[in-house]
């Protein structure tokens, strides 16, 4: 506001010989606060803040202990030596040293067990729906089947029937890694075909 007023005064007094004196007198008159006006001081920063890249170093310690039952412990320790956070994650193997066993056999024995117990859904048969349901599941360290997930299916009724049968699975002999029981993930294709 003050700056625009000074510019207006300077423009109107441009043609006069004593322009500088008038502008300075006018500026002094405007800058002086009136008794009822509040004066506010504004300070500009006197220092410049330089932003640098973070040069903090972090040491990664990864400890593999065969007695930890499949837990991977990752500890982040900053260069100062104080521990920040410990992350524990349970590993699910896709291929273990000793794969889980189902009633003395492998996953093919389990597939045969599933096929014996499947019932073709009536709604799928009436609508001539057939195809392959792909599931994944985890054999836990205690032999239970958990984490059943449908990966692909031609119809919901077919996938629900497959999940029903797989979830009723008896316990497996768990897989092993370094002599310890571990969680192992399996993928199972199940074919639904109508007889001609």
CATH topology of the largest domain: Fusion Protein Consisting Of Minor Coat Protein, Glycine Rich Linker, Tola, And A His Tag, Chain: A, Domain 2
Number of strands: 8
Poorly predicted runs: 16-30, 83-88
Share of residues in helices:
25-40%
Largest sheet, in brief, is: 5 strands, mixed
Rg, Å, rounded? 39 Å
**Architecture of the largest domain, according to CATH?**
2-Layer Sandwich
Reading the helices and strands in chain order gives HHEEEEHHEEHEE
pLDDT averaged over residues = 74
**What count of structural domains?**
3
Question: What is the CA-CA span between the terminal residues?
Answer: 91 Å
Number of helices: 5
The rough form would be described as flat
Structural class: alpha+beta
CATH top level of the largest domain? Alpha Beta
Strand content: 25-35%
What does this structure look like?
With 196 residues, the protein is of the alpha+beta class. The chain has 3 domains: 2-31, no CATH class; 58-90, no CATH class; 107-192, Fusion Protein Consisting Of Minor Coat Protein, Glycine Rich Linker, Tola, And A His Tag, Chain: A, Domain 2, CATH 3.30.1150.10. It contains 5 helices and 8 strands; from the N terminus they run ααββββααββαββ. Strands 4, 5, 6, 7 and 8 form a 5-stranded mixed sheet that branches. Strand 2 (71-78) and strand 3 (85-90) form a beta hairpin.
């Amino acid at each position: 506001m003050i700056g625009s007023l000074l510019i207006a005064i300077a423009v109107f007094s441009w043609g006069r010989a004593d322009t500088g004196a008038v502008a300075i007198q006018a500026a002094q008159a405007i800058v002086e606060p009136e008794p009822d006006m509040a004066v506010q001081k504004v300070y500009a920063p006197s220092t410049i803040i330089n932003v640098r890249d973070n040069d903090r170093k972090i040491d990664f310690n990864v400890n593999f202990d065969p007695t930890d039952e499949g837990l991977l412990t990752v500890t982040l320790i900053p260069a100062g030596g104080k521990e920040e956070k410990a992350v524990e994650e349970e590993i699910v193997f896709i291929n273990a040293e000793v794969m889980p066993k189902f009633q003395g056999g492998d996953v093919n024995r389990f597939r045969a067990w599933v096929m014996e117990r499947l019932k073709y859904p009536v709604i799928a048969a009436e609508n001539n729906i057939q195809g392959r349901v792909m599931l994944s599941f985890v054999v836990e360290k205690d032999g239970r089947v958990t984490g059943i997930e449908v990966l692909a299916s031609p119809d919901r009724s077919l996938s629900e029937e497959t999940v029903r049968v797989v979830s009723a699975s008896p316990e497996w002999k768990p897989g092993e890694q370094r002599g310890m029981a571990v969680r192992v993930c399996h993928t199972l294709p199940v074919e639904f075909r109508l007889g001609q």
